[in-house]
Design goal:
Layout lengths: L7 H9 L20 H5 L7 E3 L6 E3 H13 L7 H9 L8 H16 L5 H110 L2
Helix pairs in contact: 1-3, 4-5
């Protein structure tokens, strides 16, 4: 099928999301929501995830739109897997078993483009799988780079902060040790002050006694000189 055929993106989207669960697209620039306020007020708010068509879980709508856009741009010319998928989807609700649905869709697909072999389905489906795998590899490479750039930078900052905290903790321990040493020395100084004061005062007293002894002796000699040597 040619890329220019309208509605391919919406049909691809319907293959992967349950009908009625399409992602909400942003409003176009210039749109005025006031005119639709009454009708919009009754509509439920759709979450960022939706059930997949297979019913096996929820898928993220932003990634769904990414893959739809990717497959839409890669759509191969002529009838292929997507056209068969569309024919298969049209068989739902007819009360046919799964095998009958696939067979009826194949008959409808062959009538659509004159294809007679299922090789075109296998080939085209594998081509789309290859495109998705290539995109996944590119995405994972970007994830790895993002982890290295962002998470790595945060881990580097984390290590710097841890190292800084260790250094600060060591500085605090060193300062505390110094405080304890100072306190011990202060206790020693108190005893040394009393001891040294006692020694100095004792030395002072001894000096004074000796001084007075010399003064008294000299004065006594002067008195006797004055008395005896007139």
């Amino acid at each position: 099928m040619a890329d220019s055929e309208p509605g391919i993106g919406k049909r691809i989207l319907s293959f992967f999301i349950k009908e009625g669960e399409e992602p909400i697209r942003p409003a176009q620039a210039g749109a005025t929501p006031v005119a639709h306020a009454a009708s919009e007020a009754t509509k439920p708010v759709i979450a960022n995830t939706a059930p997949n068509a297979a019913g096996t879980g929820n898928i993220d709508k932003k990634f769904t739109e990414h893959f739809v856009s990717l497959l839409e741009k890669a759509n191969l010319p002529g009838p292929d897997y997507f056209e068969y998928k569309q024919a298969l989807q049209s068989m739902e609700g007819l009360g046919l078993g799964e095998e009958k649905q696939f067979q009826a869709a194949w008959a409808s697909f062959k009538a659509m483009g004159g294809v007679k072999e299922t090789t075109v389905l296998n080939t085209s489906a594998n081509q789309y799988l290859g495109i998705l795998d290539k995109d996944r590899a590119s995405f994972l490479k970007d994830v790895e780079k993002a982890i290295k750039d962002r998470v790595g930078a945060l881990q580097d900052e984390e290590k710097r902060l841890e190292d800084s905290n260790k250094a600060i903790t060591q500085q605090i321990a060193d300062l505390q040790k110094k405080v304890d040493e100072n306190r011990n020395r202060l206790g020693q100084i108190s005893g040394e002050v009393a001891e040294q004061s006692a020694k100095i005062n004792a030395n002072k007293d001894s000096f004074e006694i000796t001084y007075l002894s010399f003064v008294d002796q000299i004065k006594s000699d002067l008195n006797k000189i004055n008395q005896y040597l007139k």
